[in-house]
Structures
1.
Amino acid sequence: MAYLKNTWYVAALSTEVGADELFHRKILGTSVLMYRKQDGTAVAMRDRCPHRFAPLHLGKKIGDEIVCHYHALQFDCSGQCTHNPHGEGNIPKAAKVQTFPLQERYGFIWIWMGDKAADPGLLPDYSPLDDGPPTGVGHTYMHMRANYELIIDNVMDLSHIDHVHGEIISTRGQLSPIVPQVRETENSVFARWEWKQTPPILVLAGFLPHPEKEARHFFDVTWMPPANIQLSVGGAQGDTPFEQGVGAYDLHTTTPETETSTHYFFATRRNHNIHDADFNAMKLQAMRDAFEKEDGPIIYGVQEEMETTDFFSLNPVLMSNDVAAVRARRLLARLIAKEEEGAGGSAAPAARTAAA
Ligand code: FES
Ligand SMILES: [Fe+2]
């Protein structure tokens, strides 16, 4: 399967890669080892020894270097072999491990899997996640048994909320009839829904002045390649503008593990009750439950039934609620095709870019 390569994907939560352990995860079908140098900087390399292909995460860390568990070749964090305990200790020229550029931002470690020079400027700005106390933000990771684009579709089309999710984020039937405003640029797709409901969305209601009365709400989502969606939700009552209402700023981002499995990362920063650590933990768990127990089963069912990752080849029925998700799919397909052409490969199959 073709992925966009010369771009940043989240490889791990910052908290997943500790000071001592050798963390490993398959990303875009490639096994990657991550660990921290003694100064705390995270590094990533292929999780495979060039000798007999032992996973390097089974080895150990000595200073900033990794020792393979099988025959003890040692590698520095540039992937260069620095020690061979066998024979005369010559270091074979090919004893080098591929490394991957990382940058650590917004509570995540982002990885560059492409062959072009890593461009830090291509990482979108998610700095609102950093803006406030640690008790006002949560980060989490979920493993999903589905292609990453099915998860993007699910967030770009929030009309599923009232059908799939429970009381906590119900819009009481208001969302589905709305055709969102959609805007597209050369590297983003934006959608916005606005509506009124009584009572307000439960997760926000308790922080509004009149928890039982009508509130105005909005959702907006901005997808940027390869698989990042910034989602804002807000509520306000009376004449209060949305900017002074209650709300949250979320990042949904997915990283393909394989064609049909995905690392799903999520972060949420709210503007209310920001010093309450217990509420913070409870809210994050509630969001995880919604994704894993409510979105998960339907997305897994879709993936199994599709038996392919080529969505458009199945001639899906498309409705007004699909506009943003379909635009994101098409834009991603165009970017992948362009990257492959640039690399001398063939363009993506016509079905992937065909008008739906
Ligand atoms: S497999 Fe790593 S040193 Fe032999
Ligand atoms: Fe959902």
2.
Amino acid sequence: MSEILLQIDGREVKAEEGMTLLGAAQRAGIVIPTLCHYEKLESYGACRICTVEVETRGRTSLVAACLYPVEKNLVVRTRSEKVDKIRKMILELLLAHAPGAPELQDLARAYGAREARFDKESSFCILCGLCVRYCAEVKKKDAIAFVDRGTRREISFIPEIASQECWGCKECFPLCPTSYLQAAYFLTQGLAFPSASSEPASEE
Ligand code: SF4
Ligand code: FES
């Protein structure tokens, strides 16, 4: 695999062909925020909080670091006025969905995002797809799926599969950036399997 040299935040960074900018930055110890990325899953590009500025052949553009492949001599800025502005706006939009999420609040503080900028439509899910993709790609169970489209899009456990698989798994819970998945699971559990919902919830 051939080595590629690029510049990230003024530092020369070595990467391998096929790596993403996020992978190269992480390997060099440079932090880029992410909300829909998990190393065991294919990149998805849903949240765009990993947006960075790249300069190549005299042109500057904003790209998702978790999707963009490394290129020789690329100049990357992980913080700039434009990058910070776009992250701030993304966070304000996401906070409208999940206002109480600690991970979002930490990022909001870092980027000066205000919680009340957009009308609240709290679903507590930011549609990052981590739970859905983890269940499909790693567990190969498809017990959770996206349902509906557009503004009505949400996640839903598939009761027939969830009743067999989820109780003993729950591996997707800690991946959820809004901490809502656990509550969503128990809600679904309670509705779909009323007798199971009275079981103690503290075996972990
Ligand atoms: S429930 Fe959590 S992990 Fe699943 S899509 Fe929504 S925010 Fe992402
Ligand atoms: S982490 Fe790159 S788009 Fe979400």
3.
Amino acid sequence: MSFSTTLTVNGVTRNVELDDPRITLLDLLRERLDLTGTKKGCDRGQCGACTVIVNGRRINSCLALAISHDGADVLTIEGLAQGGRLHAVQEAFIAHDGLQCGFCTPGQIMSAVGLIQEGQAGADPERVRESMSGNLCRCGAYQGITEAVLQAQKTLDAASREEVA
Ligand code: FES
Ligand code: FES
């Protein structure tokens, strides 16, 4: 028996035939759509390396069944840069050395984008650390990551003020 699911991934509608209804969103992205920027760390919801944004909320894609997100809007790390220009969070991670080996970085960045969209970041480093606590970094780049999130929040706030003015 085969199934199919339709997702909008980074703005493009994709219909995928599934031979197993248990395929996770993470495996669908990596193995069926070749979007390997989303990483598989623990594959059990503990590290955050697989974080993507689904219908505006960040989730661990290793815990999500692809079929249960039929019709969803999915944003992955590959969809962040626009017109050859990095997203403000990506630029801030580079500027603040928010990475070492880089394996956790796509998940960290997607989580940061999600928490800024949720309005949870604020200017308090402690709140940022808490809101990012589902994303583990074995290299211990946490200081740079926190600084990058705070910087990106400021940049995006300033950009939205300019848009309103
Ligand atoms: S791979 Fe999904 S939380 Fe670790
Ligand atoms: S940069 Fe290496 S695990 Fe985070």
